[in-house]
Design goal:
10 helices, disordered C terminus, Ubiquitin Conjugating Enzyme, 305 residues, 2 domains
Length: 305
């Protein structure tokens, strides 16, 4: 259980970090435990750690700031062991040299300085440190962000670095695709693209041709439409007169004959309305005129009547 003074001190330091961020250092307390802090150190330019992002943890004792914290690093870096406490004058390895005036920002700044400076003088590594070549440090720096993004806690604590990693992956993918197209273009893909362009051009030409045909079509003659309606009217009138004579002879009564005539006229008017709708459609009129001669049309109408 953290002491009240410890909690107040850590809260104050977090507010100070948010107000005045430290260069190459990002640190945040755990949402569930203020005594556990998570940090990211960004490698300095001009060092083998340039371009690297090193994730680690700081465990503060409940007596902080009167006792030093424990420091560990999670990201492979070629300088310190992972998941092991690092021996520093400001860590719990040397409580006798601890200064209560030191803060989280000063601890991490000192860790970054100790990490990047004096690499050639580490003939006898201290506890928690390792010796690796410069090329190995550079390789680990290049893969550090990818390694960190596999850690669920890192993704939760530092979403901005996850977004940066995604952007890097996207840019690298686009660059590799561009280089592959420039250096060794794929013949199959280019041929497929050419076929698609050719088919698109043919479709456009076909559409333009249909438009030209429609524009060049002559409108259906008005006199021809009037002639067809006249023939239809004559065809309707002849059987109507014949029906009138037959009904009069059968029923011998004007009322029944009138009723039958009205029903017959209504039926013929409905047929006439349907024909009129078809004639008003210019495309249907053209197709009808192309398929049947006037004589055949006349005979067909007589047959329907």
């Amino acid at each position: 259980m953290a002491e009240k003074s410890c909690v107040k001190r850590l809260q104050k330091e977090y507010r100070a970090l948010c107000k005045e961020p430290v260069s190459h250092v990002v640190a945040r307390p755990s949402p569930s435990d203020i005594l556990e802090w998570h940090y990211v150190l960004e490698g300095s330019e001009g060092t083998p750690f340039a371009g690297g992002y090193y994730y680690g943890k700081i465990k503060f004792p409940p007596e902080y700031p009167y006792k030093p914290p424990g420091i560990s690093m999670t990201t492979p870096n070629g300088r310190f062991m992972t998941q092991k406490k690092i021996c520093l004058s400001m860590s719990d390895f040397h409580p006798e040299s601890w200064n209560p005036m030191w803060s989280v920002s000063s601890i991490l700044t000192g860790l970054l300085s100790f990490m990047t400076s004096g690499l050639q003088m580490d003939t006898s590594p201290t506890t928690g440190s390792v010796n690796t070549t410069t090329s190995e440090k550079q390789r680990l720096a290049k893969s550090s962000l990818s390694f960190n993004c596999k850690n669920a806690t890192f993704r939760k604590m530092f979403p901005e670095y996850v977004e940066k990693y995604n952007q890097q992956q996207l840019s690298e993918q686009l660059a590799s695709e561009r280089v592959s197209l420039e250096t060794s273009p794929d013949k199959s893909s280019s041929s497929v693209l050419a076929k698609k362009l050719e088919s698109t051009g043919e479709d456009m030409r076909r559409v333009d041709g249909l438009k030209d045909v429609r524009k060049n079509r002559k409108p259906f003659p008005t006199w021809m439409m009037l002639l067809l309606f006249s023939i239809f009217g004559v065809v309707m009138a002849l059987p109507l007169l014949q029906l009138q004579r037959n009904l009069y002879r059968r029923y011998k009564g004007p009322q029944s004959v009138l009723l039958e005539l009205v029903l017959y006229v209504l039926l013929r008017l409905s047929c006439l309305t349907d024909l009129y709708r078809e004639m008003m459609d210019m495309e249907a009129a053209l197709n009808l005129w192309a398929d049947f001669t006037p004589l055949c049309l006349f005979c067909q109408l007589i047959g329907e009547c």
